[in-house]
Every structure is written in structure tokens, then in C-alpha cells.
Design goal:
The complex is a heterodimer of chains A (about 140) and B (about 190). Chain A contains four helices and five strands; from the N terminus they run E-H-E-H-H-E-E-H-E. By secondary structure, chain A is an alpha+beta fold. In chain A, strands 1, 2, 3, 4 and 5 form a five-stranded mixed sheet that branches. The longest helix of chain A is centred in the C-terminal third of the chain and has 16 residues. In chain B, the strands form two sheets. In chain B, strands 3-4-5 form a three-stranded mixed sheet. A two-stranded antiparallel ribbon of chain B has the order 1-2. Classes of the chains: A alpha+beta (about 140), B alpha+beta (about 190). The interface between A and B is large, with 48 and 48 residues.
């Protein structure tokens, strides 16, 4: 992640799951997703923000109306779930990285979350990042 | 953005999930792979359908339709619980990091552990106390529907232990108490003599 020295405004970079963004070194989002999934106990990597937070007011209902009208399997209205799996927000002083995961029932969730944070930090090194990891699902046994 | 009462934050509904289990139809099938709330909902509905079938010997469709009062109560609570809710903090090894789990994921955990207990189905599940403050005393309030003939006290004690272990494994909450209230005794069909 390259952080501008003095950006005029906050800059948001959304890193799609299957696209290589312009990140230096190992900080490619596809490999980061793989690295997070490689942490023992992680079962899923979800879009970094819930759908309703990624859409402007009113867009959600419009998209869902469109999806209902067009029926299952039709991607013509765009797919609101194609959100970034990892989101990095650089404000000139630090880069925030957000990851949302699912954890298996056999794992110890707090340990898994800390391991994910460490993996993300290592992935972006030597850049300094703030890591936000949220567990959104604990799989049933 | 305001979300209608019966609609999850992702915009889908429990009714849509129920229909998906019955028919396989869903307006946006790929969404089910990427939405933790809908996946938690599907897990709960599957367990509920199984429990309904086992307890009442009725078919899955009838159980899922909420024709019984206890089932209606459970479905109504599911609508409330299948949301991210509050952010529950986890300890971080780096001061710049923010590590959390959603209240919805923990409620779903409580529900899944409860539904594993034989002859029992979770009703209303609540975490009482400020879960956003580390170390704050939290009480788990759980309403339970049980099949007629189950030993209630033994079931509740075993369930309380299982829940305590699961919450210790998956959270850093300071669980002060797990209060279980049996709100429904389901009269299962008996063999005719």
C-alpha cells in the first residue's frame, strides 16, 4: 500500500477480491484474501462492509427490485455483493485495512482474529497499517 | 439508511430464506454465499425445520410456515436477531488494531448450541449488559421451547454448561449468568394404544 505523503483529501482504495490492484510488494488483494483464508479457523472472507453500508440511500431497494424483476441468475442489474473483500483507507497518516471473516466452531475465535490481524500486518509490511477485523459468523458445529 | 422492521440490513427477509429452503428460489442466489446474516438465518431455519419435524411429526413446509404459536415466536425473534447488532470487542496485540465480533454472530452461536440439545429449540436470545465495554458483566437470557417429557432441570443445567464453554471459546465476554427460561412445552404426538 502506497500512502501519499500529503494527500489533499482522504483516499479510499477498495481492493476487489479477484483483481490485482496497484499495491507494492506482496500487498495484492487476491493473495491477501488467500493469506487470511489460510489462517487456521477462518472459514470465510466476507465483503469488508455490509451491503447497506456500501450503497447510497435508496440504491439498495432499487437494486433488489431490479433483482426480483429480472429473476435469479441474471447479473444485468449489477451484483451488489461484488464488494471488496479487503478495504484500505489512506488519510495521509495511516492506512486502515478492514477484513470481515467467518470462523469455524472448533476454533477459538479471539485467537483466530488476532492471527488474522497479524497476517494482514505482515502482508502490508513495511507499511504501517491499522487493521480492523470483524467476525460476522461463527459456523455451527 | 432506514431498514424496514422485517428486512435484514442486507435487504433480504426471513420469508425469502424460508422460501429458498422450500423451493430453492431466491432473487439473488450469489448473495447467500457472501452474507453472514443470511447464512446464519439459513442455519437457524434448517435446524428449526428439523426440530419442527421431529417434535411434531409434521412436514418441513408446515413447520417452516409458523403455524404453531411457539414456532411463530421463534421466527419473530429470528427476525430481530439476524442483524449484526453491537460490536463486541476482542483484545488486540497491536494498539492500532480494532478487533471485534458482531452481536449477531454470538446470538447465532448461542442458538446453534441450544438447538443441539435434544428436544429443545431456542426462542428469544438476548445479551443483557453493555457488550461493547470489555469486562462488563453480561447476562445471557435464553427462552427455550422443549418437548413434553424431557427432564427440564437436567436439560437446562447441561445446556448452561455447553453455552458457557462455547461462549468462553468464542468470545471474551465476562458472562455473569446464563438465565434459561422455558417458555413453551411442546406436546409431542403420542402413539395411540
Amino acid at each position: 500500500m502506497t500512502v501519499p505523503a500529503q494527500p489533499p483529501t482522504a483516499k479510499r482504495e477498495e481492493l476487489p477480491a479477484n483483481r490485482q490492484a496497484g499495491l507494492p510488494g506482496a500487498a495484492a488483494p487476491g493473495s491477501l484474501r488467500a493469506a487470511v483464508l489460510g489462517v487456521e479457523g477462518v472459514t470465510d472472507v466476507f465483503p469488508s462492509r455490509p451491503l447497506w453500508q456500501r450503497l447510497p440511500a435508496g440504491a439498495l431497494s432499487l437494486l433488489q427490485q431490479a433483482a426480483r424483476q429480472q429473476g435469479a441468475g441474471d447479473q444485468g442489474a449489477g451484483d451488489p455483493d461484488d464488494g471488496p473483500l479487503v478495504e484500505a483507507l489512506a488519510d495521509g497518516s495511516a492506512t486502515d485495512v478492514t477484513v470481515r471473516i467467518g470462523v469455524g466452531a472448533d476454533a477459538r475465535t479471539p485467537d483466530v482474529v488476532r492471527a488474522v490481524a497479524a497476517v494482514v500486518r505482515t502482508h502490508f509490511a513495511p507499511a504501517e497499517v491499522s487493521v480492523k477485523v470483524t467476525v460476522a459468523r461463527i459456523s455451527p458445529e | 439508511m432506514s431498514i424496514p422492521h422485517d428486512t435484514f440490513e442486507c435487504g433480504h427477509t426471513l420469508e425469502e430464506l424460508s422460501q429458498y429452503l422450500d423451493t430453492g428460489d431466491f432473487p439473488d442466489p450469489r448473495h447467500l454465499e457472501t452474507c453472514p446474516d443470511c447464512r446464519n438465518g439459513l442455519d437457524s431455519l434448517r435446524r428449526l425445520s428439523t426440530a419442527g419435524s421431529e417434535l411434531l411429526s409434521k412436514d418441513l413446509a408446515e413447520a417452516g410456515s409458523g403455524n404453531d404459536d411457539w414456532m411463530k415466536d421463534i421466527l419473530a425473534n429470528l427476525k430481530l436477531e439476524l442483524r449484526p447488532g453491537r460490536s463486541i470487542p476482542l483484545r488486540s496485540e497491536h494498539p492500532a488494531d480494532t478487533l471485534t465480533e458482531t452481536e449477531g454472530s454470538v446470538l447465532a452461536l448461542v442458538r446453534s448450541v441450544t438447538d443441539l440439545a435434544p428436544g429443545a429449540v431456542a426462542g428469544r436470545v438476548r445479551l443483557e449488559g453493555d457488550v461493547t465495554v470489555p469486562g462488563e458483566a453480561i447476562t445471557v437470557n435464553l427462552d427455550l421451547a422443549v418437548a413434553f417429557g424431557n427432564p427440564l432441570l437436567g436439560s437446562a443445567e447441561a445446556l448452561r454448561q455447553d453455552l458457557g464453554e462455547a461462549l468462553a471459546r468464542h468470545t471474551e465476554l465476562n458472562i455473569a449468568a446464563i438465565d434459561i427460561t422455558i417458555t413453551d412445552v411442546i406436546d409431542t404426538p403420542r402413539e395411540e394404544p
